[in-house]
Write a structure and sequence with these properties.
The complex is a heterodimer. Chain A has no helices and eleven strands. In chain A, the strands form two sheets. In chain A, strands 2, 4, 5, 6, 9, 10 and 11 form a seven-stranded mixed sheet that branches. Chain A is globular and about 40 Å long. By secondary structure, chain B is mainly beta. Helix content of chain B is about 0%, strand content about 55%. Chain B is built from no helices and eleven strands. Chain B is globular, with a radius of gyration of 13 Å. Chain B starts with a strand and ends with a strand. The chains are: A mainly beta, B mainly beta. Chains A and B meet through strand 5, strand 9 and strand 10 of A and strand 5 of B.
């Protein structure tokens, strides 16, 4: 149990286009999901908290108009990178907390590699 | 206050040896400390986690040692294997932040034959 999937696993796009990344909790419901970005050989940086049925909460320094988040259902959150530029190239990873045992445990998706040409 | 410091940045261990990775935190409100393993091009996978009410937790070859007074915790990998070669991240969470994790900077472990 507690599987999180992402789609696509990799995407290449031209500068100026928008890219949508999906994050799904396959066998559990998640009212909250998290979006991270990770640059090569670096740690995960939290971008935003996705909340089902309400607006996402963005971390300081993250442009909410550039990284649009929609938590459409209890199993799906999407991240849209609008007007992507080469500096947006990164590894994007989502996670969802799964309640069980003594508390919530974060389970991560396999990540999406975005390359902007 | 939200920072989690992790060391070493990289580690080379011989097969069969013990790998030790250390983390330190400042925010005493943190109440959940997971370790994640990440292979290149993959998402992090939960390895083992501990809460402050215990000083040690062992699962197979992996052990977390937790020192609440020193605000430090460490991961020990016993009998390290080449398949353990990966990047390891410690993290800390405060239940009051709806499962929001603060990650350490990561340790790249290489287990040699």
């Amino acid at each position: 149990g507690a599987v999180v999937s992402q789609h696509p696993s990799w995407v290449i796009c031209k500068s100026g286009t928008s890219v949508k990344i999906e994050c799904r909790s396959l066998d559990f419901q998640a009212t909250t999901m998290f979006w991270y970005r990770q640059f090569p050989k670096q740690s995960l940086m939290l971008m935003a908290t996705s909340n089902e049925g309400s607006k996402a909460t963005y971390e300081q320094g993250v442009e909410k108009d550039k990284f649009l988040i929609n938590h459409a259902s209890l199993t799906l959150s999407t991240l849209t990178v609008t007007s992507a530029h080469p500096e947006d190239s990164s590894f994007y990873i989502c996670s969802a907390p799964y309640a069980g045992g003594r508390g919530d445990t974060q389970y991560f998706g396999p990540g999406t590699r975005l390359t902007v040409l | 206050q939200q920072q989690v410091k992790q060391s070493p940045q990289s580690l080379i261990v011989q097969k069969g040896g013990i790998s030790i990775i250390n983390c330190a935190y400042e925010n005493t409100a943190f109440d959940y400390f997971p370790w994640y393993q990440q292979f290149p091009g993959k998402g992090p996978a939960l390895l083992i986690a501990i809460r402050p009410d215990v000083s040690e937790k062992k699962e197979g070859r992996f052990t977390i040692s937790f020192n609440k007074s020193a605000k430090q915790f460490s991961l020990h990998i016993m009998d390290s294997q080449p398949g353990d070669s990966a990047t390891y991240f410690c993290a800390a969470e405060w239940s009051g932040t709806a499962s929001k994790l603060t990650f350490g900077t990561g340790t790249r472990l290489q287990v040699t034959l």
